[in-house]
Amino acid sequence: MSSQLDPQTREDLVNPKDRSFTQRLATAADWRSAILIPFLAVLSALIIGLVIIILTGSSFAEAMNAYLALLQGSVGSLRAISETLTAATPLILAGLSVALAFRAGLFNIGGEGQALIGGMFAVWVGFSITGLPFFIHLPLAIIAGIVGGAIWGFIPGILKAKTGAHEVITTIMLNYIALRLVDFLLKTSIFQREGRNDPVSKNIEVSAEYPTLLTGIDSAMRVHAGLFVALGAAFLIYWLLFRTTIGFEFRAVGANPSAARYAGISVTKVYILVMLIAGALAGTAGAGQVLGVLGRTTPGFTADLGFDGIAVALLGRSNPWGVVAAAILFGGLRAGGQQMQVSANVGIDLISVIQALIILFVAAPALISAIYRLKTPVASAQISKGWGS
Amino acid sequence: MSDNSAAYEKAPIESYEGTEKKSNVLSKSKIRRAKILGIIMLLLSAVVMFVLAPASQGIATFGLSFPDDKFQLDALAIPSTAALYVLAMVLAFLGGTQFLKGFQRKSTLILGISFVVFVISIMIWATAGQEFSLISMLVSTIARTTPIALGALSGILCERSGVVNIGIEGMLLGGAFTGVVMGSLLGGWVGLIAATITGGVLALLLAFLAINYRVDQIIIGVVINLLVLGLTSFLTSQILVERPEWNDAPIFPAIKIPVLGDIPIIGPMFFDQTVIVYAMFGLVALTTFLLFRTRWGLRTRSVGENPKAADSLGISVSKTRYLAVIYGGMVGGFAGAWFTLGTVGRFDEGMTGGAGFIGLAAMIFGGWNPIGALGAALIFGFSDSLSQKLALINTSIPTEFLAMTPYLVTIVVVAGLVGRARPPAADGQPFEKQ
Asked: pTM of the entire structure?
C-alpha cells in the first residue's frame, strides 16, 4: 500500500544522471505518502472540525478553547498521557487486525464482532475460574480472548476461501450476529450478574486483571499492561509480514491472488490464516478492554472498536508501526475529546467526525494533493475489488 | 487492481479444475448440496418434534382482526401440541424426500417452504396457551419492510451502475436527521424533501470520490457511515438537546384507502399505511420499470456490466454512474425519513440501528433486482417484527435468535448455499477512459 506510485511519479523523482540516488529518492517518495499525506489529512480534518464547532454556534475563541482542551486532555499532563495510552491500547490491536487483512487483500470490517466475542470469552474465563495466581489466570483469559476472536475471524475466512463469499458482507453480518449473541448471553445465568435484571456480566476476578502501570503515582492512572501486549503484537505482525515466508505469501496474495496461485501459494490457506490471525488480534483488543478497563461486559461494550480499527489501519497505511502511531493519535483524540466535552462543552461525537474525515483524506490522497497543490499525485488506496461473490 | 484478480474471485473453486472434469465435479457437489439441504430439513423436523412439541400445551390463539375493523374475523385457535406434531411430520417428509431423491431445481423452493413451516411451528410453540395478535404483527411487518426495501433499492441503483454503496446506513441516518429538523420547522412534506436531498448530497460525495478520484468505494461507504453517525450525534447533542422544538416533527398519518382498506388482513396490511409505505411500493415498481424497460435503464446496466463496451458505444460512463448513484442516494435519504416522519417524529442518535446494512443484505439476497429485494426485505421485516412482538408476550424464546436470522440468511446466501446471486460484473471497479 505504501509505495503505490505510478511509473510517471517515479520517473519524475529519479534523476537519470544519478542512479545512486534512486533508492534514497524512492524512500523520499515513500516518506511523502507515509508521513506528509497523513499529516495533512489530520490537519485538514481538524480544520473542518473547527468550522463545524463554529457553525454550531460557538465563537472562534470558544472553538480554539475546545481544541486547547483537546490538546490538554491528550498530552497536557501525565494523567492525560495515561488516558491517551489507555485508549490507544485496543486501537493498536484493532488496527493491526484490519491492517494485516489489508495486506492480504482482505477488508476485515468484522473487528467489532471479533472483539465482542473475544471479550465475552475473556470475561467468562475471568469470572468463572477462581483461586488461580494472576500469572496463570491473566494469560488464560487473554488466550480465551484470542481464541474467541479467532473463531469469529475464521468463519468469514473459510467462507471466502471455500465459497468466495465476500468478506465485507460476511463480516458486517457477523458483527450484528455477535451483537445479538452478546445481548442474549448477558441475560443467561452463566453470564448475568446475580441480582441484576439488566444485561451486565459478572465482574472478573482480580487475578485476571491486567496490572496497572502507574497507579503508584496516581490511582486514577488507568494505563495497563495490555499496552505491552499490543506493542508486542505490533512487533510480531511486523516480523510475520516482513521476515517470514508466510508473511511473504500474505503480501503476495494481497498484491495479486492469481499470480500468487501460479507461484504455488495456497490462496485458500492464506485467506483462512489471515482472517484467523486478524480475528485473534481483534479478539485480543476486546479482551484487553474487559481485562484492563471495564472488568465486565455490557451490550456493545466494544464501542465501535472495529470501525476505529479501520481508521487506524488506513492512517497507518497498513504498516504495523504506522498503526501504532495512528492508534496513539486516535487514542489522544479520544482522551482529549472527553476533556473537550467536559471543559469546553463540545460533544465528543465531533471526534468521530474528525476520524471519518481523516479516513476520507487518507483514502483519497488526490484530494489532499489538490487542496495543498502538492506536485506529485499519489494513487488512491484500492483495497477491495467489488463484491466478486 | 487487475482484471485477473477479479476473475479469480468469481471462480475460486472451479478455476483449477480441468474442463472435462467440471460437469462431473459439479454434479457431485450438487448431490452433496441436496444431501446437506435434506439434513437441514430433517434437523428442523427433529427440533419441532422433540423440542417444541413436547414443551407446548394448550391452545395458541392468533388474532386476525383489529377490534375496530369493519369485517371481523374470528381468532384462529390452534391446538398447539397436535399441530406441532403434524408440522414436524410435514418437515420430516420434505426432508426425507430431499435427502433420498432430491427435488432438483425445486429444492431451494422446498427449503424455503420448510423454513416457513418451521417459523409457523415456532410461532405456535411460543404462543401456546396465550393470545398473539397476528394482524398487528403483519401490519408492522410491512412498516418495518419499508426502510429495508428502500435501502436495498438505493443499493441496487448504485450497484447496477457499477458503484458499490455500503453507505446506505449513513444515507438513512442523514435523511432521518434532516427530515426531522426540517419537518419540525416547516412541516412533514418539506422534511421529506429535505431527507431526499440529504441522501442525494451524500450520494454526490460517493459519486465524486468514486468516479473522479477512483477512491476505494467500500472505504467511501465506511466514511459516509461514520461521518453521518458522528455528525448527526454531534448536532443532536449540541443543538437538538437545547432546542427540543427542532426535534418534534409531525408524523405522517396512516391513510386508509376506501373499500380496499376494509378487506380483512390484506386491508390493514397494504391499504392502511403512511405515504412513505405507499411510496416504497411505488418506487420499487418505478425503478423496476426504469431499469428494465427504458433506454436509461439499459445504459445504466451496461455501464455496470461492461463499462468499456458501453464507452465504445458512446455512452458516458461517468455521467450515467453519477445519475444512478444520485438517484440511489435520494431513495436512501427518503427511506431515512421513515424513521422519524414515518414513526416517532423525533431523532435519536444512531436510530437507524443497522437497517441500511440489512438493506444491503436484502439487495444481495434479492439478486440486485428491485422485486427480489422487496421479497427479501419482507422476510427481514417479518423476522424483525416477529421478534419484537414475541418479546411482548411472555415466552421462553430468546428473541435475539430471531433477530439474528436476517444476518444468518444473508451469509448463507452469499456463500452460495441457497441460489447464488450474481452482482453486476463491473461492481466496485473504477472506470478509466482510455
From this structure: 0.84
CATH no. for residue B150? 1.10.3470
Q: Closest residue of B to A346, CA-based?
A: B238
**A162 vs B13: CB contact, 8 Å cut-off?**
yes
Is B403 within 8 Å of A180 when comparing Cβ atoms? yes
Contact A147, A121 (CB under 8 A): yes
Model pLDDT, residue A287: 95
Amino acid present at B173: L
- pLDDT band at residue A14 under the 50/70/90 scheme: very low
The answer to whether residues B61 and B149 belong to one domain is no
Residues B382 and B348 in one domain: yes
Cα distance between the two ends of chain A: 24
Dist CA B203 CA A359 (whole Å): 17
Class of the CATH-defined domain A7-372: mainly alpha
Chain A hits for B166, CB-CB cut-off 8 Å, are 168, 172
Q: Is B235 on the interface with A (CB under 8 A)?
A: yes
- Annotated domain spans of chain A: 7-372
How many other β-carbons are positioned within 10 Å of the β-carbon of residue A220?
A: 10
Whether the CB-CB separation of B232 and B347 falls below 8 Å is answered with: yes
**What's the CA gap between B301 and A124, in Å, rounded?**
51
For Cα atoms A387, B3, B9, give the angle at the middle one, nearest 5 degrees: 40
Select the residue of A109, A173, A366 nearest B407 (Cβ to Cβ). Answer: A173
**Full domain range(s) for residue B385:** 137-414
Domain boundary among B84, B100, B129: B129
Q: Which of residues 238-267 of B touch A (CB under 8 A)?
A: 238-239
Q: Helix, strand, coil: what percent of chain A each, to 5?
A: 70, 0, 30
Phi, psi (degrees; rounded to nearest 5) at A201: -80, 170
Residue A15: CB atoms within 10 A of its CB come to: 11
A 10 A CB-CB count for A379 gives 15
A347/B427 touch (CB, cutoff 8 Å), yes or no? no
C-alpha closest to that of A328 among A83, A112, A107: A83
Q: What is the pLDDT of residues A147-203, one digit of tens each?
A: 999 999 999 999 988 888 888 889 989 999 999 999 999 988 888 888 888 889 999
Tell me the ipTM for this assembly: 0.82
> How many Å lie between the alpha carbon of A107 and the closest alpha carbon of chain B?
9
Q: What is the pLDDT of residue B247?
A: 85
Which region, left, alpha or beta, applies to residue B58 given φ > 0 means left and ψ of -120 to 50 means alpha?
A: left
CA distance A160 to chain B (A): 8
> B107, B96 in Cβ contact below 8 A?
no
CB contact under 8 A, A347 and B234: yes
Q: How far A180 CA sits from the closest chain B CA (Å)?
A: 6
Residues of A in contact with B1 (CB under 8 A): 255-256, 382, 385
B 330-349 near A (Cβ less than 8 A): 349
pLDDT of residue A10: 42
